[in-house]
Design a protein that fits this description.
With 328 residues, the chain is an alpha+beta fold. It is built from ten helices and 14 strands. Strand 3 and strand 4 form a beta hairpin. The two termini are 28 Å apart.
């Protein structure tokens, strides 16, 4: 990206964040500004770029919004709802006036991003070029462990491990106890070393090599643009396992896997904020490019769902404001 448009406006003598200047409510924090704009018709007739740029934190290199991906989509949907002719309100300037090339964040690789040795590939039904390499892994049947996560069965081999702590021989009682465990470990180790790996796991890679030219949902675009869309969170501090609440929310087999993990091995969660390497004006350009992917403006909002599925009966909470998803 070139010089942030916010700076260009300042150099031209324009005030930044002019939407955040309504008398007593001036200088609102970005989160409060986002809530304010989504109330009533506070974004009616306003440019999306200026709305987005007035509701973010800024640093020298990045900007941050205090909302997750769905919150951002809800904010944009609210702006659409307030403006019947929103197609004319993306930005003060045309994309071609500021950029010689501006495209959506497509995945584009020459080889499989998971393994450069993978050669098999094909186009899926939606036009993405995918790797279809099938790798085989042989495991020892008696030591196969599996659990289910995100609807997929995961298998791995769990070899026997030496149960003795470093100071196991300092206490006679502990020594007696750990000797029993150690003998059991030796028996399992002997079985492990003799057993043939006949349990075969076949894994199809399925990695996306390229999706250039495919219609991207806005959710996908925002996730790819965000500098840190996912984080790894660990339950508790120190050497404790998962919280009872998190365990109770897991599928049964996933719960069995995590309940024995001390310390907690971590969980991927969506961030509660979005950080981008450009200002709100450029983000508006990305929304415009998303909308213009399909001639009739029916590009999907969310991954796996068509935009026509959304109607005014569905709502989403953003702080104290209810967002009404609408058809575009």
């Amino acid at each position: 990206m070139g010089l942030p448009y916010t700076f260009i406006r300042v150099f031209q003598g324009q005030e930044p964040n002019t939407l955040n200047s309504d008398g007593d409510k001036s200088n609102r924090a970005p989160k409060d500004q986002a809530k304010f704009l989504m109330q009533g018709n506070n974004m009616k007739g306003e440019l999306l770029g200026e709305c987005l740029d007035s509701a973010r934190w800024g640093s020298q290199r990045t900007v941050m919004y205090e909302m997750d991906v769905h919150g951002m989509i809800g904010f944009i949907q609210n702006w659409v709802k307030q403006n019947k002719n929103f197609q004319r309100l993306w930005h003060e300037r045309e994309i071609s006036e500021l950029y010689s090339k501006f495209e959506l964040p497509y995945t584009k690789h020459d080889i499989c991003p998971s393994d450069k040795e993978h050669k098999a590939k094909t186009n899926d039904l939606e036009g993405r070029l995918r790797c279809i390499q099938v790798d085989e892994q042989k495991l020892r049947p008696s030591f196969v462990v599996s659990y289910e996560t995100n609807g997929k069965r995961v298998y791995f081999e769990d070899p026997p491990s030496d149960p003795r702590p470093d100071d196991w021989d300092e206490n006679p009682e502990d020594e007696k106890y750990f000797k029993k465990l150690y003998n059991f470990y030796l028996a399992r180790l002997k079985k492990f070393e003799k057993e043939e790996p006949t349990f075969i796991i076949r894994r199809k890679c399925n990695a996306i090599i390229s999706d250039e030219g495919v219609v991207l949902p806005l959710e996908t675009i925002l996730i790819r643009l965000c500098l840190d869309p996912m984080v790894t969170r660990h339950c508790y501090d120190g050497f404790q396992g998962c919280t009872p609440k998190r365990l109770a929310e897991m599928p049964e087999e996933e719960r069995e896997f995590y309940s024995g993990r001390i310390p907690c091995s971590g969980h991927y969660e969506a961030n509660d904020h979005l950080e981008f390497p450009f200002d709100g004006w450029d983000l508006a350009f990305y929304v415009q490019k998303w909308y213009e992917q399909v001639p009739n403006g029916k590009a999907p909002w969310f991954e796996g769902e068509a935009s026509t599925k959304y109607n005014a009966k569905e709502t989403k909470k953003f702080g104290s404001v209810t967002i009404m998803p609408v058809k575009v």
